[in-house]
Amino acid sequence: MARVGVFTCWCGENIARTVDVERVTEDVSRLPGVRCSVHYKYMCSDPGQALVRERIAADRLDRVVVASCSPHMHLKTFRRAVASAGLNPFLLEMANVREHCSWVHHNKEQATRKAVDLIRMSVERVKHNRPLDPIRVPVTRRALVIGGGVAGIQAALDIADAGYEVALVEREPSIGGKMAGLSETFPTLDCSQCILTPRMVEAGQHPRIKLYTYSEVEEVTGYVGNFEVTIRQKARYVDVEKCSGCGDCWNVCPLKKNPSEFDFGMGFRRSIYIPFPQAVPARPVIDKKTCAKLIRNGCGLCEKKCTRGAINFKDEDRLVKEEVGVVVVATGYRLYSIGKQQENGKLSGYGEYGYGQYKDVIDSLQFERLVSASGPTSGALKRPSDGKEPKTVVFISCVGSRDNAKGIPYCSKICCMYTAKHAMLYRHKVHDGEAHVFYMDIRAGGKGYEEFVRRAIEQDGAHYHRGRVSKITEENGKLVVRGADTLAGVPLTIEADLVVLAAAMRPAAGVETLAQKLNVGYDEFGWLLESHPKLRPVETNAAGVFICGACHAPKDIPESVAQASAAAGKVAVLFANEELSRDPEVARINEQTCAACYACRRACPYHAIEAAEVRSPKGAFVKNTARVNPGLCMGCGTCVAVCPSKSADLDGFSEQQVYAMVEALA
Amino acid sequence: MTEIGYYPGCALHGSSNDYETSARACLAALGVQLREVTDWVCCGATAAHALNHKLSVALPARNLALAEHDGFREILAPCPMCSMELLKARQEILADEALRAEMSSLVELELRGGVNVLNLVQALQSAGIDRIKAAVKKPLDGIRAACYYGCLLTRPPGVVRFDDPEQPRSMEAIVGALGAKTVDWNYRTECCGAGLTMANEETVLELSHRILTNAAAHGANCVVTVCPMCHVNLDMKQADIERRFNAKHKMAIYYLSDLVGLALGLSEKELGIDRHFVART
Amino acid sequence: MIDAATSGEATAVPADLPAFLDLENCYQCGKCTAGCPVAERMDVVPNQLVRLAQLGLVERARRAESIWQCVSCQTCSTRCPKSVDCAAVIDALRQLSFEKGDAAGSQRRTVLFQEAFLRNIRRNGRLNELELVGVFKTKAFLDDLSIPFLFKDAMLAPRMRAKGKLHFKPDRVKDGGVLERMFDRCLRQA
């Protein structure tokens, strides 16, 4: 017969105001198996916890129910208390008589009766609790960072500096991400390359960082502490070991007119190329879609020119395996496609703005390249159509963002700031030029941000108009922008030479597929989901997988870097021990009754169930069975619900426990 | 010969009778016969929706019911305003059973909302652009047309569900099939001032002037429309526009059916083009 | 709802405007005004009309000249990022203004024209243009005694006649009774 102790808390007045705690204690003391029923003003306080410990010893209790607040609040507290009295902490249950009772009821009589019911259920439940021990998992103390933009670089460097090895995977030929292409950065206007490229070099030369550029994550198996990752190294056609990055090959390549991805089509590159001069690694790739040798066995000039024999036209994709303990996702963002073409039916484009139709209507990243000192015009602002310096530029905010009709209701957060920066940079470059900004609200929360926007307006003379633009047309070489100034209550038509659209931010292409490989959740727009928006902002619901930067939500550089360091900190915490301790409330399969139908395996959202064989002590095959990997199981219980032979059960939430609770109410 | 229902609307039976002549002749040449909806009434136009919401549903509803009564599944309403008003009423009725019942009683005819409404471009599309192309006898090689969609052919998009409201291409596809050139211009979906011709002429003159100016600036030698009101404002009022803005437009304004008819070998008289105010120079 | 004391004018009950207009969705971006072909002439531009309606200042909105200058081109509603049917808001304001008889003085001609149009349909079932012009011009003349406006367009008539575009015989519907009952019931409910 179980010996249960029940400890009812007043929570000051929080519970006692609506629940007659003394009567509850009295009624509960008569329940079968209850050896001790006491109450106290603050059970979570030191004297309260001491009371629990004393009564466990005095009454030789082997089960404990604390009737107080929610387990979310104090389960850990009371588990520690009973453990210090020598009891297995999983022999404790909490009855929530605060959130589920006193806080939500007014009638004291009814609330008191409900409190007794809740406690009776917990008492019946706890009688079926089994002692459980934390699951211990060994940890491979190496990290995989996916995405080599500023967030990924920061996370990789921090983890490596903490003493652990890092594999950094980047799908472009160089690390650096979007930031490498930016001109100057708000709110300080420091040159983006000047602050990023040293970090890129550091990452490239770090003894504990292994770079996988031009590579993508193909497959991820395993679980926290023990992931096995397959990385696809795309055929580069250049032997990185032999190549010295001298540049003879790309200087000789005759195909000069390929639109440069790094310049967002504002400049050109060859068919063998490095995306930008400061690329890390400074090793070229051959674009197999345009290379004459690879398409039709022509040309081959680069191969002839290379003195080191580094060109290899027979190169093929390679699959490499990496064993790591954690994964940090830093895949970043891309811009919403403004024109009419959209890759999914959830979004629609701006036919009214003529993007893709008029050459001088460009997006904000294209503008970054046009004003960047390392850009295709070496920083001289020339408009795409005729190379002339634009004398009137219109900047439009919220293109896609906050536009439900186009399918994106959220704010992209950084556009207000970079648009102010754009207007500023433009005025710095073209002193007699006019900068007009159409905005709906100016969102400049951040250190020095509001001051920065005011500077654009007050010192640099940008004209701000509160209103959206309805239509852009091209007439006589001018872009006719029809907007409104809602503060003046007038329509406003501006004849511009260049229009810059602050397009909404979207998660990087393919992030959903990656998230599925990692079992990380994402929202309807593809932004990755954090475990808790306030308390676990860089963790995900997949143990051992962390997120940082703009793969999570629109974010600027300071925030992305802060998050990256936070993720690295979390990784360091996890790596501080050689073994991981996990909550033992996981599923278990009764292998004797399991029919090996694998319905559970198909239903498991965490891929925690595998097919296994039951073997006799001598090793003879007995039967097939499903088996839970406790390292992966998150204890959701889906397998329990789908198992037709009732062979799956959840430790700490067994069917027996739940039925006992239900029966206690009947 | 196939036969489809035909809702002319007031304009085509009034001062835009040239449009009716043109639409009938052109479609007949493509083997499509138009049969008028029995005892149709005005769709209510701007007046109804500006003054009385219920009436703006009831008048089109009456016509939909009459068309149903005639056994039509599809009717052509060449005037985009009529077409839009009919489609809007149909949409509201199909979405709201109580309204459907109320309207049935109000228009004194059982109303199911089953009749689809086509605009003239759709009627030509369903006759088949390939068929039109094959039937061309006199390719329109001298024509550089500015296809003018106006407001209500593509708007509101949720009601008319036709082409792209910002960058429509359907008229260009047909005109192109006739061997004519089309120009890229900016006022394809801008408003000409519509029904304000009588009451607020100044607005109409200004908006129409902008349209004609932009078409000419992009190299057009004619404007093509499917809207009788646009035609009135751009053609009949063109002399007034020229006087008001001291400009010379001399821009021929064609109905889409005019161009198709001409290419199919019909005469200007057969198509009612001789009734236009501005002749092509 | 704005308190009458703070705004200094009587406020209309929100029930004046139908709920399906979803006025609260509007975040005042001004794209309606930006694309409006006649906004330059308006005293109260489209986004301000919606704002007045949001505030419950419906009376001020319906007295605006602009509601009668609207050409119903649907550009505002088509491009609205929040799918507010701005053109329908203006229609609702016009209907109220017509019902209360308090349209802006400068817009009398437009109101008279729309009214004459409806009467014309009520009588004939289909528009009789000659009758419409006659009635409208007479009413407008009686309203503002403008002789130039009375005879403006008079020169168009013979040219239209020559082009066979003027009909003296009205194109009437056969079942006029049902139409009369429809008008009666719709206008009485308003």
Structure description:
The complex is a heterotrimer of chains A (666), B (281) and C (190). Chain A is α/β, with parallel strands linked by helices. In chain A, 27% of the residues lie in helices and 24% in strands. In chain A, the strands form twelve sheets. In chain A, strands 10-7-6-18-29 form a five-stranded parallel β-sheet. In chain A, α1 (21-29) packs parallel to α4 (108-127) and α2 crosses α3. Chain A is globular. The two termini of chain A are 22 Å apart. The mean pLDDT of chain A is 96. Chain B is an alpha/beta fold and 281 residues long. Chain B is 49% helix and 11% strand. Chain B is built from 14 helices and eight strands. In chain B, α2 crosses α14 (256-263), α4 packs across α5 and α4 crosses α6. The two termini of chain B are 36 Å apart. Chain C has two domains: 4-101, Fumarate Reductase Iron-sulfur Protein, Chain B, domain 2; 106-184, no CATH class. Chain C is globular and about 50 Å long. The model of chain C has no long low-confidence stretch (mean pLDDT 86). At the B-C interface, α1, α3, α4 and α11 of B face α6, α7, α8, α9 and α11 of C.
| End-to-end Cα distance of chain A | 22 Å
CATH architecture of the largest domain in chain B, by name, is 3-Layer(aba) Sandwich
- CATH uppermost class of the largest domain in chain B: Alpha Beta
Number of contiguous helices of chain A: 17
Cα(first) to Cα(last) distance of chain B is: 36 Å
Radius of gyration of chain B: 18 Å
The residue fraction in helices of chain A comes out at 25-40%
Structural class by SSE content of chain A: alpha/beta
Shape of chain A: globular
According to CATH, what is the topology of the largest domain in chain B? Rossmann fold
Largest sheet of chain B: 4 strands, parallel
Q: Quote the beta fraction of chain A.
A: 15-25%
Characterize the main sheet of chain A: 5 strands, parallel
Low-confidence stretches of chain B: none
Shape assignment of chain B: globular
**For this structure, what is the CATH class of the largest domain in chain A?**
Alpha Beta
